[in-house]
Design goal:
The complex is a heterodimer.
Chain A lengths: L2 E3 L4 E9 L6 H11 L9 E2 L2 E2 L2 E2 L3 E8 L5 E8 L7 H8 L4 E7 L5 H17 L9 E6 L9 H8 L6 E3 L8 H20 L1 H5 L3 H8 L5
Parallel strand pairs in A: 2-7, 2-8, 8-9, 9-10
Antiparallel strand pairs in A: 1-2, 3-6, 4-5, 6-7
Helix pairs in contact in A: 5-7
Chain B lengths: L6 E2 L11 H4 L2 H13 L4 E6 L4 E6 L6 E10 L2 E11 L3 H133 L7 H13 L2 H33 L7 E3 L1 H12 L8 E5 L6 E3 L1 H18 L5 E8 L3 E7 L7 H4 L19 H11 L3 E5 L7 E7 L5
Parallel strand pairs in B: 7-9
Antiparallel strand pairs in B: 2-3, 2-5, 4-5, 6-8, 9-10, 10-12, 11-12
Helix pairs in contact in B: 2-3, 3-5, 3-9, 5-6, 6-7, 7-9
The chains are: A alpha/beta, B alpha+beta.
Chain lengths: 217, 433
């Protein structure tokens, strides 16, 4: 649900990192903040936490301009993963334009992943979004740990759904930019269909993704 | 969303877009720009992204100003400019001053925005939780009230069902009683019928035989005087005749036989009425003439009626009414027995029947004491009786009411001013069996 204001030549996009508690959503944003180029990006805003657990959300904003002069603001949010913060998740999920689902690869977390995904589906429906239409990528995080679900099994499960899956170890930055870039691509495709970013605004997909997900040299 | 074409602005629940002036206020900025003047700048100003001056301060001097202009970022976007002007000679100081103010504003912006977002999400969550709680509360109240209704109506329903069961049980008991009385009556009737049969035919045969005896006796009496002068024999015969009181017997014997035959006839009729009334021969429902059923009931009651009872039968022609005759006879019996028991002297009963095309109406009026108003609505209740303990079951009218109800009819009582009680039964003729 893109906010678009032609008069002001302004567009606001909202991307949300969703997933079970302690799966690494905030870590993803911290890594993006550290790894991506400084230009065109705001500071990571972490709202107050309790015992280092997100209770509200984190926000990493991006800003870019198309050759046509259209200003695009991209706000990347995390949600709190703990079950009890469902009201916050619903509020943050409202009007999302793309979602990265951060799953925990550990075998013992399988049911939590499932429950959180189920919760995502229900909450999307609650805020009037269809999980089959909204741009969605899945990241299986914590690949560095033992006792994780095998990549082959993940691919076997998720490939038939057509949802892109990215392996990651967010703690040391692996797969974090790739996940974000993939989400940016899907989101671009979704918006371009409606707002002709390429033809009307001269914004190519590669440029859009490149500007958002450019690694600091 | 606004109505303008190609313009979609949403109200975000959290994180709506904000301009510089939405976040920081005069009291955040003015101390900084004033501080710049005190620190030696000629002019300091903060402009928004359209170069409108939001806040500024100046010392009034117009010099060969040198401007230091620094951008102000919000979420990666340039949202305003800070300009600090002063003497070119002081360029180094001015730059440092501008950077200091830029940093101070950046920190102020970040902390204020963070506070705003926190407040926003916090109040959203609280509102949403409140709404959810209100909704939960509403659902709980609804389910509680439906449970309460259920509980309340359950009590009433249990009472109703209990009442129905009680009635059904008493009806069954009564029917069983009637059935056994009927069986007993049928058995007795059968046992009486056989001896009654030979008594009846023997009496008739005896009538013939006695006629012959009489003829023979008469023949002797007329023949003997003509025999030869045996007056001694004749005399002894005449004495014997007198001794045996044959004149009286001769006069009485036919009357005796006639009375005996009549008696046997009556017994036969009683037995037949009893059989009819108990309907031991009939089973199931079939169309019956209610006038005839009332007559049968009255016949059975004949011996219960006090002497001098007047019975008026104002019968109209009735269509056949499909029912179990034993049951309707039970109703008539109960009503008539009440009337009989209500008055022992000069009882007058008026039984009237009529058919108005739809309903059969039967009324049983007596000239008894009537029914007091205060108990009129209780008389159909089971076990309600005004008689002494042991002499009334309190079931008579209840059974009558139940039977009539079962046939889709009504039974009502009325006490006219001139006295007595009138029970009126209304029965629909077209009853779906």
């Amino acid at each position: 649900m893109i906010e678009f204001d032609e008069l002001e030549q302004r567009m606001v996009l909202k991307l949300v990192y969703y997933g079970p508690a302690l799966s690494g959503k905030t870590t993803n944003l911290l890594q993006l903040h550290d790894l991506l180029v400084r230009e065109g990006r705001g500071d990571l805003m972490m709202l107050d936490t309790a015992d280092d657990r997100t209770i509200f959300f984190d926000l990493l904003p991006f800003f870019l301009k198309t050759p046509s002069g259209l200003k695009i603001k991209i706000k990347v949010y995390t949600v709190p993963g703990q079950v009890r913060h469902d009201a916050t998740r619903k509020a943050v999920l409202q009007r999302a334009d793309g979602i990265a689902f951060i799953a925990d690869s550990q075998l013992i977390e399988a049911s939590n992943n499932f429950e959180s995904f189920d919760n995502l589906e229900r909450n999307l429906a609650f805020v009037g979004l269809n999980i089959d239409k909204v741009p969605l990528v899945i990241q299986f995080n914590k690949r560095d740990l033992d006792n994780v679900i095998s990549e082959a099994e993940i691919r076997r499960t998720w490939e038939p759904t057509g949802i892109p899956v990215q392996m990651a170890t967010a703690l040391n930055g692996q797969g974090v930019i790739e996940t974000f870039a993939r989400l940016a691509e899907l989101t671009y495709d979704h918006i371009d269909r409606r707002y002709n970013l390429k033809n009307e605004h001269g914004l190519e997909r590669d440029v859009f993704v490149g500007k958002l997900a450019a690694r600091e040299k | 969303m606004t109505g303008k074409d190609n313009r979609q602005t949403f109200s975000y629940v959290v994180g709506a877009e904000r301009r510089l002036a939405d976040i920081i206020a005069e009291e955040d900025v003015m101390p900084l720009v004033k501080g710049a003047i005190r620190a030696g700048a000629a002019r300091a100003a903060l402009t928004d992204d359209n170069d409108n001056v939001l806040w500024s301060a100046s010392n009034g001097t117009v010099t060969d100003a040198h401007d230091i202009i620094l951008p102000l970022y919000l979420e990666g976007e340039v949202v305003g400019k800070l300009s600090v002007s002063g003497d070119r000679k002081n360029e180094g100081n001015l730059k440092g001053l501008a950077e200091l103010i830029q940093n101070a504003l950046k920190i102020s912006l970040a902390s204020k925005l963070k506070r705003m977002l926190t407040t926003e999400i916090h109040s959203t969550v609280i509102n949403q939780s409140y709404e959810e709680l209100v909704e939960v509360n509403r659902k709980l109240s609804a389910s509680e009230s439906s449970y309460r209704n259920l509980a309340e109506s359950l009590e009433v329903k249990v009472e109703e069902r209990t009442e129905e069961l009680k009635k059904a049980l008493s009806r069954l008991l009564q029917q069983e009683k009637m059935a056994s009385i009927g069986q007993l009556a049928a058995g007795v009737a059968h046992e009486i019928n056989n001896p009654l049969g030979f008594i009846y035919s023997n009496l008739q045969t005896m009538d013939k035989y006695v006629t012959r005896f009489m003829a023979m006796l008469d023949y002797y009496r007329s023949a003997i005087p003509e025999a030869a002068g045996k007056s001694e024999l004749m005399e002894s015969c005449r004495r014997k005749w007198e001794e045996l009181k044959l004149d009286t017997i001769r006069a009485d014997v036919f009357e005796l036989i006639k009375q005996s035959v009549e008696g046997a006839h009556r017994v036969k009729k009683i037995v037949s009425d009893l059989k009819d009334f108990s309907h031991v021969d009939a089973s199931g429902e079939y169309p019956v003439d209610l006038n005839a059923e009332i007559d049968k009931t009255l016949n059975v009651l004949t011996h219960e009626m006090p002497a001098g009872t007047e019975i008026a039968r104002n019968y109209g022609p009735l269509p056949g009414f499909v029912c179990k005759p034993a049951l309707v006879c039970q109703v008539f019996l109960n009503l008539l027995l009440n009337a009989v028991q209500a008055r022992r002297k000069d009882l007058r009963l008026v039984v009237a029947t009529m058919h108005d095309g739809e309903n059969i109406r039967l009324s049983f009026a007596d000239n008894g004491p009537g029914i007091p108003d205060e108990i009129k609505n209780r008389i159909f209740e089971p076990f309600y009786t005004t008689r002494d303990v042991g002499s009334g079951t309190g079931m008579g009218l209840t059974v009558a009411y139940d039977i009539i109800s079962a046939y889709g009819g009504t039974i009502e009582v009325d006490c006219p001013e001139e006295g007595g009680a009138v029970f009126t039964i209304t029965l629909p003729v077209k009853r779906i069996v």
